[in-house]
Each structure stands twice: as structure tokens, then as C-alpha cells.
């Protein structure tokens, strides 16, 4: 074994998930084990997770943990070495991880400071005979963990914080400094102060030994004001200790060979059958490329651009299926596209994992017109299934898709269509390029093959994390 890592996060597949953060936290332990690193994951015991505690052992107790007692339970569950922080006064409530029907939980600063506090304590003292070499915190929810570790003496333990989405920063009023167990002397612009208040994410960024984010391009973008969202100066000041490491996907779960009608890069007949089934299920008749959108329906994801570009795409022979939910106005907008183009556009509001698999298996293209995208998994699913990604040139989208151009076609390396800037004009031009490419069967088949051969698993990413941990310990 090369080393031990404690991962501190608010979500982890398969236990709790609201977004891609959970996929990363759940995939890393197994991926790192393959390269000789042991990782345990610390998450809160939300109400839905409390039944897990019956199968786990209590290994650490913390009286007076931000309003009540806390206990850490340990066990191997679903193939993950899991640590669960049971603090009923903070986590045992109806609703989601971060809020209920009325919005965000009022005590989120205390709820995730508690998670960070226990992460730092485990890093310093160890737990049940196990002590990490590296504490790896994720996003604002784990942001105070490197700070607690730094301010109380980290010893030999190193710390890393990963920014999955800088839009969420864990803001709290400065009046909570004492309650959150933070040293008053650190309330200054180079320390914890953030526009007059506190940010748990900033706390992690200024105290961790290393900062990572989930793609090289996003790491560079975060130093610019249009992407850094107020924290660009903090990240730029630490640029020598910032890395971008792409996420991966679980290629056992996202596998065209494992779908209802299997296919592979060497035997593509099943994809044509899957397309026919998908069209029949949605009542579509599409002579040109059938595109899908599987996404949260928000402006960040560029969904507001669809009404401006889909009519022309339909007129050129294309079709579209949308699966997702989000902004009510955008839900209404995509429903309007289906109403205006019966037989060519279909919409399902909500999310359905099985349906998303069917859509990736049967579609010709996946549209990802995000205005910013730290990494993105959707385009990777597209690559895996030969469902040609049409993506904006930002973040992880730019790092994973090789755009069609005369040069990339001549070199035989193109895997999708990439456009810039993220506006209706460029997006519409990209869809025109998609239609033209689809109309050239030999080129289309080559791009599909290139896409399916592009590595999207965790092997490369796990090796990069392992190398980073190794450098820190060296």
C-alpha cells in the first residue's frame, strides 16, 4: 500500500446523490485501490442513511458537536470503506442534504462545519487504528476541514481540496467565527474573510496544501473573473499549487455492451436497433440525426438556447429528445418545442436512470451547450456510446471532446462537434455541422468509432490523484 486517504464529502454514490460530486466520491476509492492507495469516505448520516448505522460500528464520539453529540460509525458498505457521522440534531430531518421545502437549511454552516471538524479530528488522531496520510476535502461542504487541520496542527498529514463547482461557496456571516471554532486572528483578506463574511470554500482554498478541480481547462478558467465568481484572485495567488484532474465514468455501469440491445465499436448493429426502438417509444420519425439532452434545465447548461436553434435543426432533418428538470420557465420552453414539432421533438420532465441509458444507446448525438462546465459526465457517456457530443468549448467539455475540423478529420481523430462562444449563433452553426457530418456515412462512422475508443474511465484520473498524493507526501 502506498498511502491512506480520508475523503470528506457531503455526497457519495450509491448512498446519497444530488449531482456529479457523488459520482466522483463514490468512484475514487475503488479506482485508487487499483493503484495501491487506500481511501475511506466520511459523509453525514442523513435521515435516509440512518439504517446503515445498524450494520456499522461506532468508533469515535464527539460530545457537543455544534449543538449536540456526534458519533462516527465505520464499516465496509457497497464496496466502500465508509465512515458515517451520526449527529441527529444536524442531519436527521426530512428533505435533501442541503435543504427542505422552505429552501436551504438555516444551519448549513454548522452542519458542514461539523463534518469538516470530524474529518480534521480523524486526520490528526486516526480512527480505530487507522490514520490517513492525506485529507481530501470536496467542495464547500468539506472546505473547513483543511482549515481546522491547519489551524490546530496538521503534523505529517497533508490536505487537498477539490473544487467541483465554484458557484457554491458556503457563505456564512462573520458573527459565526467563534461558533464555528475558527480563530479570530485569521479573519483578514488573506485568510478567512470573504467580502465581510466567511466562505468555507475559501477557507479550504487558502489552507489546503493543494487545490484540484475536475478538468485542466476549468482550473485555468477559475483564475478569470467570468468563471471564478469572486474567488479568482484566491486561486490565482495559489496557481503553483492548482491542478486540473478530469473525472472519469464507471465503464461497467455505462457500457454499450451491457445495454438491452448490446453493441460495440466492432459491432454497431445494435445501436441502429436501439435508435429504432427509442424513436418508436417516443413516437418520433427522424430522417436526420437524433439528438438528446440529458441535463438539469438551467441557464448554466445553456438550455435557454434550445428554442433559438432547434427549429432550424428540425427543418434540416434532425430530431430531439429532452430528459431533465429545473427552471419552470425552461421546462415550459422545451415542452413548447415538443408541441410545435410533434413527431420530431419529445420531452420528459424529471430524471430516470434507465431511460437515460436507453437514450444514450439509441441517439446519434448528445447536446451539451453549457456556459460553464467544471468537468461534465454527459459528454463522456456520449463518447462511450458513440453518441456524438456537440459541446461548448469550456471546462471539461473542451478537455474531453476533439472537435470536427478539416485538420482533425484528415488526421482521423475527431470525436465530436465543439463550438465557441456559447451563444445561439455558434450553437446553430454546430448543429448545421452535425447534420452535414451525419449526411456523410463514412465520416460519421469514423467519428463514432473515434468517440467510442476515447478513454473515459477512471484509470488515468486515479493515477493522477495517486501521483499528486505521492508528491505531497514526498
Features of the shown structure:
Rossmann fold; 38% helix; 474 residues; single chain; alpha/beta; 19% strand
Characterize the structure shown.
The structure is a single chain. With 474 residues, the chain is an alpha/beta fold. The chain folds into two domains: 3-248 and 459-473, Glycogen Phosphorylase B (Rossmann fold); 256-453, 3-Layer(aba) Sandwich (Rossmann fold). The protein is 38% helix and 19% strand. The chain has a nine-stranded mixed beta sheet, sandwiched between helices. The longest helix has 18 residues, at 108-125. The mean pLDDT is 96.
Question: How are the secondary structure elements laid out?
Answer:
Blueprint (H helix, E strand, L loop, with lengths): L2 E6 L11 H14 L3 E8 L12 E6 L7 E8 L2 E7 L1 H4 L7 E2 L2 E2 L3 H18 L8 E5 L5 H9 L5 E6 L7 E2 L20 E2 L2 E3 H8 L2 E4 L2 H6 L3 H4 L3 H6 L4 E3 L24 H14 L7 E5 L11 H10 L3 E6 L3 H13 L4 E5 L3 H10 L2 E4 L9 H8 L2 E5 L2 H6 L5 H6 L5 E3 L4 H15 L2 H13 L5 H15 L1
Parallel strand pairs: 1-2, 1-8, 2-5, 8-9, 9-13, 13-14, 15-16, 15-18, 16-17, 18-19, 19-20
Antiparallel strand pairs: 3-4, 4-5, 6-7, 10-12, 11-12
